Amino acid sequence: MAVSESEESRKRGVVAVVEPAGHKLPLSMAGPGAMGKTGYWRTQRPVVNTEKCTGCYLCWLYCPDNVIEMVPGKGPRGQDIPVIDYDYCKGCGVCAAVCPVKAIDMVDESKFLAKEKEEGDGNA
Amino acid sequence: MGMPKLLAMRGNEAVAYAAKYARVEVVAAYPITPQTIIVEKIDELISKGEMDAEMIHVESEHSALAATYGAAIGGVRAFTATSSHGLMYMYEVLWWTAGSRIPVVMAVVTRAMGPPWNIHVSHEDILATRDTGWLVSMAENNQEAFDLTLQMFRITEDPRVYLPGIVGLDGFILSHTVEPVELPDQETVDEFLPPRRQPYVMEPGEPKAMGNLVPDEYFEELRMDMQQSMENAVKVIREVGKEYAKYFGRDYSDLVECYKCSDADYIVAGTGSWMGDAKIAADKLREKGYRVGVMRLRWIRPFPWSDVREAAMSKRAVIVMDRSLSTGHAGPLFLELSSALEAKPSMIGVPAGIGGVDISYEDIERFTEKAIQLVEEHGRVYIPAMWYHLGKIFPTYPSSHVKLD
Amino acid sequence: MAVNIKKLPKKPYVMPGHAACPGCPESMGFKYLGMALGDKAVVVIPAGCSSVIQGLWPRQGFGLPILNIVFAAAASTASGLARALKRRGVDAQVVVWAGDGGTADIGFQALSAAAERGEDIIYICVDNEAYMNTGIQRSGLTPYGAWTTTTHTGKRQFKKPLPQIVAAHRVPYVATTSVGYPWDFIAKLKKAASIRGFKYIHLHAPCPVGWRFDPSLTAKIAQLAVETGAWILYEYENGKLRLNPPSNRLIDPEKRKPVEEYLKLQGRFRHLKPEDVEMIKKEIETNWEEITRALKIQGDL
Questions:
Q1: ipTM score here?
Q2: Which CATH number goes with the domain that contains C192?
């Protein structure tokens, strides 16, 4: 049992005692993969050319799937660079389209699939 | 501790006072006859500083329940009231509230559904809530409207239940009629009604989602949990009803009120204010030598299955008064009682009083006597709809296996 | 309020692996919502794409508390929730995140009433210009000429001028914005959160599936809508209208890109006849005329 109350509500006596009591509830918690490994949806894979990348963060900003993480200082010129989570990237290509220096190439996913098959790794 | 005080008031005012005593924090409502006085009274109590609550003056009943639900899921006791078309306009929100497992209390002042426009009593509105997952109760008088409302907060907020609840009171017959109502003192109410409990609160912090998609299997399990909670509610209602007697002297531990049932051969069953008239009719019939009892359903949901069976299973006949009709079949209460009683007694359904047509105890006496005669003449009968209208019996669909006129 | 992109919160307000289609403007927009308001936000979402984007129990794809609600009831549910949290002394910002149908059509009555009551909420209309979740049906916010699955030869009516309609309720803050300009949206959200009372933000959200364009172009198309003048960025603060960049530089039609550049990228406009394009241009001109008239009355032009 938890009591959810603020200082003010305690003063006024307005408390909500929260007690799930073992019921099944229509509640979900935030977390990755609410629709599974959405990387499987991908037909095109964004590949970052770190040489060209200026670390401007636009790809990170616009990515609708939030699969881009900016890693500080890891670029060849010490710039922040994007790292893409291919487990979840749907390959929409928004990152490539917004990149002002064309540092992201969209590459046919089948190439990677073939390669991964060769290497005996089935993960797309 | 203060003393309770006896005041004369209309049923709607009694309900408004119950919301005040329950320390309701947010009320959202929309005007509809015959419910409106409840909201007017609450607004008055707030304006006078007698009730510390906020009124959300919404633009529709759909929004009334949605705003009430929004407040309740945000962690405060919330209340609304409606009637008839207003209740139907809320209909999808009824389901949403129950499915969310958020305790909310609502008064439904019963009224006919149009067209044509009719503001008078009928149970067409309230009985349409049977499948929604709300607890549904019906008051017989203004005191009970007050008492049920107060209890409903405690019952719905019981962790074994966590379902919203409706208190029904008959339009005009109770809503606009002055009766003596005993109001308790606040301290006693505070002892009886603990701080609000609910299964979760929507507030900043934990990034949870209420109501996003679930696998169908889990959806069904959520419904199973609701059904289990309804079963729990039977127990909780009894406990709370008994406790209520301790604090306020009136016992509500029975989901079904039985009047002279034990020695009765014939049971008149139904719900709402007209069951008071049914009791007078029973006495009159007893004077004529028929052993008649009255079984009043105080609760429609959870359906008082075992109480009903205990009270009426072994009787010769059950005559069900229905102020509503599932058009194309029979009265909803007739269908439910026939099922609960496995139609072992003779079952006679009497749709009557629909749209506010006045039904006196003499009317009830008349159709009950007719039903008794049919049983005496034919032995076991099963008559879904023996419509009683202006002193006459009207055979109607589904056709009866015995001739009714 | 200038927005430094690199200093925006890194906390995920949209979770990888949610259920949105590739290139979805709604999940894009939701990120900015989280970045702007942070963990104080509680979001009420009526039926629509964003109900589905959350994905499947036991997970959900948004990094904020979400209260899903029936289609017509977002503004009223948010009203009740905001009142309750305030009464409990909880520091929260209740936000409605609704689609164009949920706002301009089925949810309009509740929206108008909440605005009239001055409820302390931020209402965001995520406008992808049709009922996308049910499969691209026409809404009151579908623009003239657009193909949908219920306007096979193109819609013959104009888009409801919703921001102006809400502004006519004399609420303290109304703004338009676009997923193509996250900094604009974030700044407006922050401003809205600082104002008490009813705030309305209309977010233009180009949908690759419904508008028939390549999913990589979501942000680009959103920007083209603004650059061509088809979508105008402005805000009403206590009734005072202000154009925001880049729209403030586009009053002169000469400065705008030709609208054809915006239309030609979208399959939903493929069937347009020259006279349809003229009608669209006329609609754009009408919108701009209204804006400039208001600015002149204010003495700002």
A1: 0.97
A2: 3.40.50.970
